[in-house]
Amino acid sequence: MPRNPTVVRTVPALRRAVDALRARKATVALVPTMGALHDGHVSLVRLARRRAQRVVVSIFVNPTQFAPTEDFGSYPRTWKEDVAKLAAENVELIWHPEVKAMYPDGFATRIVPEGPATAGLEDRFRPHFFGGVATVVGKLFTQVRPDIAIFGEKDFQQLRVVTQMAADLDLGVKVIGSKTVRERDGLAMSSRNVYLSPDERRVAPTLNRVMKDTAARLRAGEDTAAAMAEGAAAITQAGFVLDYLEVRHATTLAPIGSLKDGPMRMLVAARLGTTRLIDNIAV
Predict the structure, then answer these.
(1) Rounded to 5 degrees, what angle do the CA atoms 120, 125, 129 make?
(2) Residue 124: is its pLDDT beyond 90?
(3) What is the reported pLDDT for 73?
(4) Is 249 tagged catalytic?
(5) What mean pLDDT do residues 35-56 have?
(6) Which residue segment(s) compose the domain that 219 sits in?
(7) What contacts 201, CB < 8 A, 6 or more positions away?
(8) CATH of the domain at 49
């Protein structure tokens, strides 16, 4: 029978718990989350378990990455279910701080990322987002001091931003991306999928289908601009409000024109009703 993980809520308690995990020089993996855990998160934990001897999962709904108009207050919070899922995966430690533990009175230092964070994708529509992500992840890395950290590829621009930050700031952690976990119909798993109505849920897999069809056309040598324009039209016709459908360099996220320019990643963000969905695939 799985044992419940240790839960810590203050930085001193976290440091003591991590020191105990590192007994006999054990390696530590961190899986940062905002809770509302689903099978995609479980896949991150399982990858962490394969890559390190001890696993720490953080659960913190980070207010600094939400704009005032976004869903911070209504973001799904499923604490009891989350702990049960992590216990079933034999996670040793959950870092579950209060907002004041992360951002105490007088907090005045923030990380402002550039490079992949200013690629004109998510940052164009959520200009506050990557500053909030970089700051909280930078704090998590210095608090937990993991050997590796696991992030999902679904949030691909975020993965590139965090990878760049860890390297640029010499944080001593290896960032590893984990493949997107999907529902049977192709929809990328996300905590926000619970917002979709039944009708919207039936339409949502269109994003993945269009990306796969468009990527196949690019690999077959079709004109990039024409293929992307037709893909964007198909998404709009399905009922989405499209923020972007872009093909970018898979490392830098810079715009590219063809497969000759390097490895390509196709990224999409679109609203279906009140729910904003993002996804990406390799080309």
Answers:
(1) 90
(2) yes
(3) 87
(4) no
(5) 97
(6) 191-282
(7) 187, 193
(8) 3.40.50.620
The single residue listed with the structure tokens 């991150």 is 44
Q: Is residue 152 part of a domain?
A: yes
Helices (DSSP H) in 169-205: which residue ranges?
198-203
The structure tokens 């898979």 sit at 250
CA distance 283 to 154: 15
Same domain, 172 and 201: no
- The two beta strands, 148-152 and 174-178, are parallel
* Tokens, residue 64: 């600094």
DSSP state of 50: H
Strand extents, DSSP E, 9-67:
28-33, 54-59
Q: Is residue 151 domain-shared with residue 277, that is, in the same domain?
A: no
170-174 LR contacts (CB < 8 Å, sep 24+): 171/138, 171/141, 171/142, 172/145, 173/30, 173/141, 173/145, 173/146, 173/147, 173/148, 173/149, 174/147, 174/148, 174/149
**239 pLDDT band (50/70/90 cuts)?**
very high
Decide: 232 and 266 in contact? Cβ < 8 Å: no
User: Buried b vs exposed e over 151-188: b needs ≥16 C-beta within 10 Å?
Assistant: bbbbbbbbbbbbbbbbeeeebebebbbbebbbbeeebb
DSSP state of 89: T
Residue 106 pLDDT exceeds 90: yes
Question: 70 is written with which tokens?
Answer: 């976004």
**Residue 122 contacts residue 270 (beta carbons within 8 Å):** no
Residue from 41, 96, 128, 249 carrying the catalytic annotation: 41
Q: Kindly tell me the sign of the dihedral angle through the C-alpha atoms of 120, 266, 204, 43.
A: negative
According to the model, what pLDDT value does residue 167 have?
98
| 183 within some domain | no
| Alpha-carbon gap, residue 222 to 199, rounded angstroms | 33
Q: State the amino acid at position 80 in one-letter form.
A: K
Q: What's the confidence (pLDDT) of residue 1?
A: 59
User: Which residue from 137, 134, 139 is spatially nearest to 107, judged by alpha carbons?
Assistant: 139
Both tokens assigned to 275: 């729910």
